[in-house]
Design brief:
Largest sheet: 7 strands, mixed
Distance between the termini: 35 Å
CATH architecture: 4-Layer Sandwich
Mean pLDDT: 94
Number of helices: 6
Order of helices and strands: EEEEEEEHEHEEEEEHEEEHEHEH
Helix content: 10-25%
CATH class: Alpha Beta
Shape: globular
Structural class: alpha/beta
């Protein structure tokens, strides 16, 4: 039987704070997003410095940093949003230690791989499809966005990837917050459809790093990151997925320089590993409740 496109989650006591939310940067593309009573884990990667990930076709990469916390230190998590099935995004620590019944929204390819690993609550979505969760008075809709992990024929050698739009709204349909996560994508023509279908993006998490496989760029570097800001037009962008692995060839300093040259400093917020960005939702939206 097909899985329900709306899943009701258990709630804790008390009303959620709709005024404030936060993004905690663990490292690589791993973050904790907290808003409206939800705690969302993205692309769980908890390997430590000097440990290696397998990227397929005999390729390996060494981690250069430590995660800001270990998987055992995670707070209770409601769901995982996973951009694709690569070990630097869902590593062997996550495979071994995450709750096998934790909901995971991801690509069909990743869902099939995780099911083989024993995960029982995968929710595969195609591009533009959504999976919705309800927790108390807040609804979260996770919608798959188009992504291309590599140019041309190279993309066939890499796992399918998705970006994600996370729409938080009240259960009566009043919008609260819209967040976009690029996933491991390059700039491509379909990205221009995102702001047309999903305008007024409040926050964007940019997967950068300028990752290269066999010398070929497969994630955005500094210049593509700036172009992504111009295309998606978020109120604020936060770069993640940089400086953590040897395959990342475009350091954060490159992006910072390109942002300055583009005059976009007021549109970008930088987080160090272990740092939290706290955001405020406009009072006018909360009044709609």
């Amino acid at each position: 039987m097909p899985k329900a496109r709306e899943l009701i989650l258990s709630t804790s006591r008390g009303k959620p704070d709709l005024k404030l939310g936060s993004i905690f940067f663990i490292g690589t593309a791993t973050t904790l997003i907290r808003y409206g009573g939800f705690t969302i884990l993205t692309d769980p990667n908890f390997l430590h410095r000097h440990e290696r990930v397998r990227l397929g076709y005999g390729l390996r990469s060494k981690r250069l940093t430590d995660p800001a916390l270990d998987i055992e230190e995670l707070p209770p998590v409601d769901l995982v949003v996973l951009s694709h099935y690569h070990e630097d995004h869902f590593d062997r620590v996550a495979e071994q230690k995450l709750d096998k019944w934790l909901p995971i929204v991801t690509t069909k390819h990743a869902a099939a791989a995780l099911t083989k690993q024993g995960f029982q609550a995968t929710y595969p979505v195609n591009t533009w499809e959504s999976q919705t969760f309800v927790k108390g008075s807040v609804r979260l809709r996770v919608t798959s966005m188009p992504g291309e992990h590599g140019p041309g024929i190279i993309s066939r050698l890499l796992p399918p990837v998705m970006g994600s739009v996370l729409d938080f709204e009240t259960t009566n349909g009043a919008p609260l917050l819209r967040l976009y996560i690029t996933g491991d994508t390059l700039i491509h023509r379909k990205l221009k459809q995102i702001p047309k279908r999903y305008p007024n993006i409040d926050l964007a998490l940019l997967h950068l790093g300028g990752t290269r496989a066999l010398g070929i760029l497969v994630t955005m570097d500094d210049k593509q990151g700036v172009e992504a800001i111009r295309i998606i037009n978020p109120t604020l962008a936060i770069p993640i997925h940089y400086n953590d692995y040897t395959v990342f060839k475009s350091p954060l300093s490159d992006f910072q320089r390109s942002v300055r040259e583009a005059g976009l400093e007021d549109r970008v917020r930088y987080l160090s590993h272990g740092e939290t960005y706290t955001f405020q939702v406009p009072q006018s939206r909360i009044r709609q409740k």
